[in-house]
Amino acid sequence: MPDKVVYTTSAINTGAREGESHSPDRSYEVKIATPKKMGGSGDGTDPEQLFALGYSACFHAALEHYKKEEKIENRSQVTLTVNLLKDPEDDGFKLSVAVEVGIEDMNEEEAQKLADKAHAFCPYSKATKGNIEHTIKAVPYVEGK
User: Fold this and answer.
1) Nearest to 99 by CA among 141, 74, 134, 123
2) Smallest Cα–Cα separation from 78: which of 107, 114, 44?
3) In what order do the strands lie in the sheet with 12-14?
4) Cα–Cα distance, 52 to 60 (Å, whole number)
5) Contact 123, 58 (CB under 8 A)
6) Over pLDDT 70: what percentage of the chain?
7) Cα gap 99→117, rounded to integer Å
8) Fold for domain 47-138?
9) Which pTM does this prediction carry?
């Protein structure tokens, strides 16, 4: 039996990495630009930043799912870093992801257990499993980081 679709969204891009992306109803629009470090204008958001924003929110939602299940009310923070790497196989690019999870007043060993559960549950993690390198690490919680 096919999986039940619970939500669908889409985005439209014109101009590739020096263009614009938006939702079909234009409720969200963003100027896209290649980072200066890569020879671009840097005058906008790059696709890797958008991926990091979406993935971090999704991962944090998965973490909150397990915190709620275990009746943990401590504040938490997810910092997700996306690296754009040179791919020697085709001279193109590939991604890697580093996720840091901090949970207030929780030791790193316990936080790591929750982070690992969240990684197994998060739809972004499932979608990228086996395709990109992931590093999941518990870190001390720092408010406002």
Assistant:
1) 134
2) 114
3) 12-14, 20-22, 29-31
4) 12
5) yes
6) 99
7) 13
8) GMP Synthetase; Chain A, domain 3 (3.30.300)
9) 0.94
DSSP string computed for 60-84: HHHHHHHHHHTT----EEEEEEEEE
Task: For tokens 């906008």, name the residue.
Answer: 44
Token match 């039996």: residue? 1
pLDDT tens-digit map of 76-107? 999 999 999 999 999 999 999 999 999 999 99
Q: 88-110: string of b/e by CB count within 10 Å (b at 16+)?
A: eeeeeeebebebbbbbeebebee
Tens-digit pLDDT profile for residues 15-45: 999 999 999 999 999 999 999 999 999 999 9
pLDDT on residue 143: 86
Give the count of beta carbons closer than 10 Å to the beta carbon of residue 117: 17
Is the pLDDT at 145 greater than 80? The verdict is no
Residue 2 has pLDDT above 90, yes or no: no
What stretch(es) of the chain map to CATH 2.20.25.10?
1-45
| Nearest of 30, 136, 131, 138 to residue 85 by alpha carbon | 131
- The CATH number of domain 1-45 is 2.20.25.10: yes
**Which amino acid, residue 40?**
G
